[in-house]
Specification:
By secondary structure, this protein is mainly alpha-helical. It is built from 4 helices and no strands.
Amino acid sequence: MLQFIVNGLIEGSMYALVATGFALVLHTSRFFNFSHGGIFIIVNYCYFYLHKSLGLNVLSASIVSILVGCLAASGINSMIFKPLRMKNAGSLVLLLSSFGVLIF
């Protein structure tokens, strides 16, 4: 029973972290960026690969995964969203492009 509680707290914390990230991105960029969820998945898979397959310890795998997520997010922003904002694209165009990034 204790394991179920611990697992529930871990999952709930991850959901709260993602929801807080969505709210922060929505508030700062003024469009709902679905690619934020894709970045979260990239970080999780990177952590899993580094920790389980390569045998890195938890702290090292976490730091490298966060850096990979930051690089992926800044790359997506500079290659996709920044040029669209420079062309004064509307919110719908930004939303659809974030769907495309999430699907990719």
